[in-house]
Amino acid sequence: MLKFVKNHMDSIAGIEIYPVISLIIFFTFFVVLFWWVITAKKDYIDKVSNMPLDNQNDDIL
User: Which residues cross the membrane (predicted)?
Assistant: First the structure.
């Protein structure tokens, strides 16, 4: 099965750029996410972490 996929992919011109693009996209996403986590304000983290426990906004349909 892997030989079939590999042989099929070898026949497509210019396909070798897609793994590089994927790596750059995922690396950039995780770097930005890590930066956001490090720079997040403590008040915001506390507010968001308590949202599931907040019972003041009970909207019953």
Answer: 20-38
